[in-house]
Amino acid sequence: FLLLYNSDNSHSLSWRRYRPEIAESVKQVFKAAEVPIEWEEHYVGTEIDPRTQSFLTWESLESVRRNKVGLKGPMATPIGKGHRSLNLTLRKELNLYANVRPCNSLPGYKTRYDDVNLITIRENTEGEYSGLEHQVLLKVSKIITRQASLRVAEYAFHYAKTHGRERVSAIHKANIMQKTDGLFLKCCREVAEKYPEITYEEVVIDNCCMMLVKNPALFDVLVMPNLYGDIISDLCAGLIGGLGLTPSCNIGEGGIALAEAVHGSAPDIAGKNLANPTALLLSAVTMLRHLELNDKADMIQDAILNTIAEGRYRTADLGGSSSTTDFTRAICDHL
Amino acid sequence: FLLLYNSDNSHSLSWRRYRPEIAESVKQVFKAAEVPIEWEEHYVGTEIDPRTQSFLTWESLESVRRNKVGLKGPMATPIGKGHRSLNLTLRKELNLYANVRPCNSLPGYKTRYDDVNLITIRENTEGEYSGLEHQVLLKVSKIITRQASLRVAEYAFHYAKTHGRERVSAIHKANIMQKTDGLFLKCCREVAEKYPEITYEEVVIDNCCMMLVKNPALFDVLVMPNLYGDIISDLCAGLIGGLGLTPSCNIGEGGIALAEAVHGSAPDIAGKNLANPTALLLSAVTMLRHLELNDKADMIQDAILNTIAEGRYRTADLGGSSSTTDFTRAICDHL
Ligand SMILES: CC(C)[C@H](C(=O)O)[C@@H](O)C(=O)O
Ligand SMILES: CC(C)[C@H](C(=O)O)[C@@H](O)C(=O)O
């Protein structure tokens, strides 16, 4: 089962309904790999759904709740019109408490770094994002709760343990924000005690950013409050080439996993068969792992990485001139 | 006139009074370059001064107020004892509203980046740092005011104009924090209108971090609220090799300039004649520019950069084996 949301980035109320080429690419690759799932497709609505107070339809949310798994194409919220952000609505309605982003150097795609192999795990529901309504923060208070901090810390340590990772670094600014970040650290420490086999450390966010650009190999699993996660996960994506290459998956209460491409919907090239489907494909792979379809996940991931490494077919953002379709076909050939 | 604070990083109340070798290095280089200033030296106290509620003495603060210029060695506040942070006290008492950090690749010292030439200008008094008392944030509210935002924006544009810079980027997260960061942007826009010759742009912080690690040459002058400045200035320092190599200067009301080395006091190597004085020396250079002693500033800066570029004398942190004294002597020879 799988779900796709698509929208364009149009800053008007008339959202065109179209199926971007990168979603099509995932469907083709899944078909070629004979992944045993059926797609259930949903689109962002053209009008605000009163039951969600956003352009997200109630049906689409129900679909994720029912299937417990989904894949979300790039979605952008029209700016400055007072609607609730689609991404934030999803996080809130589905209680997507952890955003997980594996970040690995791609063999064959050179950046300044060739030693990146880390995971950022972002608390996804509170902090500076608390109390958002219609994207306006009425009172800018940062809220950190024990419950949400324990939950994401638990997720991070469990992830580390089950994925053969050795270290969890909690990122914070508790020297300034003792009440909030201090509580976050306290929760991480509590959970750390239950995982003696995992090394635990605490790193101040400014220092963390400096160390990440100097030597990303110093890090393994990073766990942090919402805003730091927003910042650091994008920084890490930059190390390996950008958001077009990094998978993302949101974990919700009750075992929900909503994978997503976090890059923008690139309205300038959307619909022109030029976009790079890598981030959505790699996100789809994380979804397959969540479904414990690990053979299919490995197979597809290898095909993607090999296609990029080989370098014959690359989209424009990676310095090539292939169309989305050509690149997709090359991946299918590598399966 | 110049002022030095020195302390060690001892986490006890008994602060040893000693003069670290990097301060000595600045004094030697200034003497060799015949800089026409006299030093007025102050140390962090061994007891809390009731007039400052911190280990900073009232006399030392008065000295900066009187001289309007100062150089501060690395200072650390003992953690978790409920004293007010020395750095935060200084910012508050002297109203140091802008922290300015030029960040340039050092010729001859290779990092992954060779094209860094940017300045971060950080609002230094409010945001998440508002209402700090004894390093405990009683209520974690982010406060952004029109007055402080206009003041730092004005500083940034004026800096850009008088330093031949072409672009100012305001860094923000106004899509989430409309009330606070939105106000910050509004102020930047107002000031930007007075500087039509400077290009103005707004960049969301997460995206900014990604772009910085992908291509720092995209940026010129960056201006931002307190916490983002804390994060991004360290990230930028990482691009060129770390805090040991980056100058910093704090600008206060009434024309005060307090230059500083922002790296730690490195208690493991302090007093062993091993520390790299580059950050403090380059900070001292920014102080000279503030005093409009530009010839001396250029002369000293060239000597530092040439010594590093030549590579014969380098301290351990840069992969060499020179002592602080040898490195300093080499700089003096290059004058
Ligand atoms: C669009 C924005 C609200 C969002 C966030 O800040 O969380 C985005 O940056 C992200 O990381 O998904
Ligand atoms: C030590 C800490 C309070 C300080 C800050 O957060 O401002 C430091 O990181 C800095 O950048 O000067």
Protein architecture, described:
Two copies of one chain form a homodimer. The longest helix of chain A is centred in the middle third of the chain and has 17 residues. The first copy, chain A, is α/β, with parallel strands linked by helices. About 6% of the residues of chain A have low confidence. In chain A, helix 5 links the parallel strand 8 and strand 9. Chain A has an eight-stranded mixed sheet with strand order 3-12-11-4-5-10-8-9, with helices on both faces. One 3-isopropylmalic acid (IPM) sits at the interface of chains B and A. Chains A, B: It comes from Hevea brasiliensis. Chains A, B: GO terms for molecular function: isocitrate dehydrogenase (NAD+) activity; magnesium ion binding; NAD binding. Chains A, B: Belongs to the isocitrate and isopropylmalate dehydrogenases family. Chains A, B: Heterooligomer of catalytic and regulatory subunits. Chains A, B: It holds the Pfam family Iso_dh.
